[in-house]
Amino acid sequence: MEESRIGIYVCWCGTNIAKMVDVEAVVKEIKKMDNVVIARDYKYMCSDPGQDLVMNDIKEHNLNRIVVAACSPRIHELTFKKALTNAGLNPYLFEMANIREQVSWVHTDREEATKKAMDLVRAAVVRVNFHEPLDKLSVDVDPATLIIGGGIAGMSATLMIANAGKKVFLIEKNKELGGNLVNIDLTFPHMDSVQQLLQPKIQKIKDHPNIELFLETEIKEIVGYVGNFETKITTHEGKEKELKFGNIIVATGLKLFDPSKIANYGYGKLPNVVTSLEFEKMLLSGIIHKENGNEPKNVAIIHCVGSRNEEYHGYCSRTCCMTALKYTNQVRSALPDSNIFDIYADMRAFGKGYEEFYTATSKRDIMFLMFDQKNDLPIIRKADDKDECDMIIEMNEKLSGESIEVPADMVILMTAMEAQENAKDIAHSAGISMCGNDFYIEKHPKLDPVATTTDGVYIVGSCQGPKDITDSISQAWAASARILAAISTGRVEVEVTTAKVNEDVCCGCQTCIMVCPYSAISFDKEKNVSIVNEVLCKGCGTCGSACPTGAIRCRHFTDKQILSQIEGLMMTLVQKSEIIEET
After folding, report:
1. Prior bond of 445 cis (ω within 30°)
2. What is the rounded distance in angstroms from the CA atom of residue 81 to the CA atom of residue 89?
3. Domain match, 486 and 505 both
4. Element housing 281 (H / E)
5. Do 479 and 505 belong to one domain?
């Protein structure tokens, strides 16, 4: 093994780290360690100049190991690995110490934070001495793609890939394509017809020679790995079919919250309290009317029904505010003499043209009333005989501080977006991680927002979280571009930090098979040993920690590397102990 020549780079992260950690003191201390050739600090190591600093030093000082002390590896580990690769150094001869999330952001004492930062960097330096270069692993890619979900995101991805001349299998569980948009009248903020956007796409998919469409179809199981997946599908006729493909896009969309769970709103009990989707169907029919067929004189719209409330869903559903403003415009145009009340918790106009849409709408004689979403929801009750309306909305208006009664003949509830009922089944089949609210989790929120931790599996649209049409289509095109790039090369790189079984030590107990979360381990009955599929393996280490004989070695996380890292952490304590013994 060649002698280590280590370069150390400590990031200020602006003031995120430097405000709480004495960065210069850390560099001065780490310079004393064995095999450290050069140690530097810089304001933003992730910037182009920061990366150039590393690359130039590798070439100038013949460095063969690099340690960067900065933010979480989850955010910028790939950035620095790429810099090593560009400088001609194997990217696995690199270690990162997290001194932002694990030090500066969680400490209030600068001296203690600096000492802890030193300890973490020491541990990284000792560990990197034992890093080994790992070679890239690649596999062939089947050019076909499976897309699950025929909403706007799924259809957009399907057409992009099919138009590039590649085969697509599109699976939709309903009788028709379009998802929730089938029931939507106009878009916001431009008030364009959704159906004029949707129907041409649907027809193109049905007519496209590269697309095989399966309606009223369910996925039974998915097996295989990136480039070489297989699945069984079941059609509405009960027929089973096997499909083979190289990549997967999951675009299963969302469903709407059931507002009957909130007793305050009387949904299902009061006749003219409707959901946003029910109101959309009314708009598509061309007539806004109450249950008795009459036009409503007083129309109220209540925001955040099931959203931004920890009792139901703590997150914002993103599109509700603008959809509510769309409704106020449509009601004002259809019923010019009506009274319109927009009852909101906060008005969120985050997208391009949205603030202008809000400003224009507010000039159309709309009464905006604010309520406390967390602790003080409005209450809808049937009006008394003396009232000139069908319902009364009792609320504490937040801005004025007054308790008021709002007349209403129709109430539109802006219901939350939530994950599909079968989200867990799809996640299990496709190997996708989920967050607490059952939306799917992307591989990286900034650097890889459409990929998942399972290579070859992508998530687009509202299955990842609430989003509008624009964002859904953008994600669909991003995932499609990633897949087309992989198909064009014919091969795709996969994770190399995988587990490896020492067959001489394996006792054949199959404990590793039971604990593997990726189903990456099988059993060879003839040899009586476990076998790791390196393409499926993600190097999580679960099997290695569970193996009773120590037969499984995890590349890049060997016992020697981990124990040396612990030794590095303990160096300060050992030095203090030696000083005490001497005295």
Report:
1. no
2. 9
3. no
4. helix 276-285
5. no
pLDDT tens for residues 2-20? Answer: 899 999 999 999 999 999 9
- Give a yes or no: residue 561 inside a domain: no
What percent of the chain is modeled with pLDDT above 70? Answer: 98
Q: Exposed, middle or buried: residue 207 (CB in 10 Å: 0-12, 13-18, 19+)?
A: exposed
- CATH label of the domain that carries residue 516: 3.30.70.20
Domain holding 266, by residue range, is 256-418
Is residue 292 packed enough to be buried (19+ CB in 10 Å), middle (13-18) or exposed (0-12)? exposed
pLDDT in tens, 192-245: 999 999 999 999 999 999 999 999 999 988 999 999 999 999 998 888 999 999
What CATH number is associated with residue 44? 3.40.50
Residue 574 lies in a domain: no
Per DSSP (E only), the strands in 235-365 are 240-245, 247-250, 254-256, 273-275, 298-305, 339-344
316, 407: one domain: yes
Residue with tokens 């003031």: 15
Are residues 247 and 260 both part of a single domain?
A: no
Matching residue, tokens 């903020």 = 189
pTM over 0.90: no
Statement to judge: residues 266 and 359 lie in one domain: yes
Query: Would you list the DSSP string of 38-74?
Result: EEEEES-TTSHHHHHHHHHHHHHTT--EEEEEES-HH
For the segment 558-564, the average pLDDT, to the nearest whole number, is 92
Number of domains forming the structure of the chain: 4
Instruction: Measure the CA–CA gap between 39 and 568, rounded to whole angstroms.
Output: 17
